Amino acid sequence: MASTELKKLMDEAIARELKVSIQYMFQHIMIKGKRARFIGTELRVIAMAEMLHAEKIAERLVYLGDVPTTIPAPVDITGTEQEILQKDVAEEAYAIDLYKKIVKKANDDGDSTTRLLFEQILAEEELHHQTFQTLLGE
Ligand SMILES: [Fe+2]
Ligand SMILES: [Fe+2]
Question: Which residues surround ligand 2, an ion (CB under 5 A)?
């Protein structure tokens, strides 16, 4: 069964999914410049995907008997277009590291449902990471 440590990591994941969902949505609303329409559309699509991640992880945490956080990690929508995209690349890299850790912990705990959930979300975070890198021109 899921350990306290695994559930703590999942709660951190929820706080961060809520954060990036708000962050990307407001970057989409606020972004200016020649590429604003194009980048903004990508940000909006990814913001919605992140909200669905928060939902799925929270549902799983409730199933495991915990109350999920409703408090996002601190949101940051400041910066130029380039700075915004650099921050978002870093957000996705952080999520990838955290979810690899959760996949491993869920596997160690014998919780294959949580492992599968995070493997699926991890695949999406890798695509977000790639999208932001592409928009950044890396
Ligand atoms: Fe996510
Ligand atoms: Fe993501």
Answer: 125, 128
- Total structural domains within the chain: 1
Ligand with the closest atom to the CA of 92? 2
Average pLDDT of the chain?
Answer: 97
pLDDT class of 1 with cuts at 50, 70, 90: confident
CATH code at 17? 1.20.1260.10
∠ Cα 11 15 21 (to 5°)? 140
d(CA 75, CA 20): 7
CA–centroid distance, residue 14 to ligand 1 (Å): 9
Domain extent, residue 116, equals 4-136
- Ligand located closest to 42 CA: 2
